Amino acid sequence: MGLDERTHTALEALVRRYGLAERQLRQLAAVLEILEGDERAPTAVREARRALDTHIADSLVALELESVGSTGAIVDIGAGAGFPGAALAIAVPGGDFRLVESQSRKCAFLADLLRRAGLTNAHVVEARAEAWADGLGGNDLVLARALAPQPVVLEYAAPLLRLGGSLVDWRGKRSAAEETAAARAAEQLGMQPAEVRRVEPFAGARDRHLHVFVKTSATPAGFPRREGMARKRPLGG
Q1: Which of 61, 59, 48 is closest to 4 using CA atoms?
Q2: Residue among 24, 11, 16 at smallest CA distance from 117
Q3: Which of 34, 52, 69, 102 is deepest in the core (most CB within 10 A)?
């Protein structure tokens, strides 16, 4: 099918922005083509030019953080249609990515997306984040985009991280009350706020922030709580 000239030109500019290679350009183009052509794609934004900004650019902006560009075990929780995990797996070929998603139909789409885009450093895990026992304590970086309130994301992420590992949480407009609740939740989980980075993934993007937390002590006993409890009774209130 191929991308139209306008979309391809914009994608080339994005690839230059982050110093990516020709192979990565082809893989990102393949992802856009799959989104546009596959009706199973679990997103309302499938048209390639819009998806380039909404999904690809918004994912790759995390490369501005030093922790995201390094190799290691990286988890995207609530991976959905594959963002940010699949896009960043293309950009960071030395990383070992796990895309954690609880819905079977989304997992089926993700597995096909990874195969068709030639991504060998990313794998799909069908599980709820708080029930993924194999992932406990073994990851360098957790990614979360448009997933849940921040205290909930922190509770999902903390048990999955090794000491010194980081969470990167995509957020919109800042809220002092929400950040205070998140800081309280982080303290309960052995995490500390490290940075809030204002970013502009594409021209005209407003109120985009990456919130970074670092795991500074062991996850306390009792976490992760049983499935559903993080949302039902969020920490930090």
Answers
A1: 48
A2: 24
A3: 52
Residue 70 within a domain? yes
Q: pTM here? A: 0.96
Tens of pLDDT, residues 175-206 = 999 999 999 999 999 999 999 999 999 999 99
Q: Is residue 214 part of a domain?
A: yes
CB-based contact 40:188 (threshold 8 Å): no
Domain count, the chain: 1
Strand pairing report for 161-171 and 209-215: antiparallel
CATH assignment at residue 141: 3.40.50.150
Task: Give the tens place of pLDDT for each residue, 136-187.
Answer: 999 999 999 999 999 999 999 999 999 999 999 999 999 999 999 999 999 9
Where do the H-state alpha helices sit in the chain? 5-17, 22-37, 48-51, 58-60, 66-69, 85-91, 104-116, 150-157, 176-189, 229-232
Q: How far apart are CA 210 and CA 96, in angstroms?
A: 21
- Structural domain range at position 130: 61-232
